[in-house]
Design a protein that fits this description.
Number of strands: 11
Helix content: under 10%
Largest sheet: 7 strands, mixed
Distance between the termini: 39 Å
Radius of gyration: 13 Å
Order of helices and strands: EEEEEEEEEEE
Strand content: over 45%
Structural class: mainly beta
Shape: globular
């Protein structure tokens, strides 16, 4: 019954910061040993893992995006958020938050519906 839902602006200008929030219902982001991930899919490309947060708040990022990416959380609202700095049109994608059991590799058992973010002036 765990549900995840992404929210945030669908249009961001180049050089600005992309900010999205994932709201989790039906389960706590701090009491179960899951990874809480951000994943994106640019047009005509495959899924790209961006980063994750563990239940203790520690974070890990894709090496290609580490310098521009930050994941944070608001435990009182059971939310975790993504910030991607200095965006370009190449960052246009559908962005997903997803829950992943540890040990499952690149598999995820619950996904948000995804939200389209377009980077354009």
């Amino acid at each position: 019954q765990v549900q995840l839902q992404e929210s945030g602006p669908g249009l961001v200008k180049p050089s600005q910061t992309l900010s999205l929030t994932c709201t989790v219902s039906g389960g706590s982001i701090t009491t179960n040993y899951y990874y809480w991930n951000w994943i994106r899919q640019p047009p005509w490309k495959g899924l790209e893992w961006m980063g994750r947060m563990h239940l203790d708040g520690s974070t890990y990022y894709s090496p290609s995006l580490k310098s521009r990416t930050s994941i944070s959380r608001d435990t009182s609202k059971n939310q975790f958020s993504l910030q991607l700095n200095s965006v370009t049109p190449d960052d246009t994608a559908v962005y997903y938050c997803a829950r992943g059991p540890p040990g499952a590799g690149d598999e995820y058992d619950d996904w948000g519906q995804g939200t389209q973010v377009t980077v354009s002036s």
